[in-house]
Amino acid sequence: MDAIEKEFLAYLCDFITPHKIALMEEVLNKRTRYFTVVLENIYKPHNASAVLRTADCFGLQDIHVIEKENSYKINPYVTRGASQWVDLFKYSNEDGNAVSECFNQLRRNGYRIMATSPKAGSISIHELKPDQKLALVFGNEHEGVSQEILDQADGLVHIPMYGFTESFNISVAASIFLFDLLRKVQSGDTPDFYLSEEEKDTLRSKWYRGLVKQVRIHEKEFLKKKAQT
Description:
229 residues; 7-stranded parallel β-sheet; 9 helices; elongated
């Protein structure tokens, strides 16, 4: 972030309540990209929105959505505002490459990719170690993750089931996984778990601009005064 942008953010502080600014700083200090969630071909948009809300509550910054037959539109009644605070990445499957594009991007960023599935060879959640950046992939409500995901993931992981039903709701499963992973991380020393100062600056700019009404007009006026000094 350059000096002018920092000055502009300081200018925008006059249009945001001190309480909101303090809350954003508190959240920024707990934000992470060490874990991320991938949703594949979710059939019911409110389920994807519930996962997005869950991810925000646990401090995750990035959510990835692979769109195949089903596209995803945010349900604001379910996210309860969470969508304005997280970064959502969508991968279109028009060329049939959505899974590969998503996974290649994740691997470039250092993620180990674990698909959530009870199929043979899947490890228990209790065996899942957060010893590197981790992306959890959740499939749709009817079929789970696709064979394409199974073929390209680095491994499989599941939550042990003790009842008659075969699976949890997607948002419930995401909550269990993220709670368990964060608990494991907090009991040890994980370097680079939280956002860097540069990443915080980028988000601070995005969040401030998203909160202040008519921010473009404010920016134009700010730059005009800056040029006159």
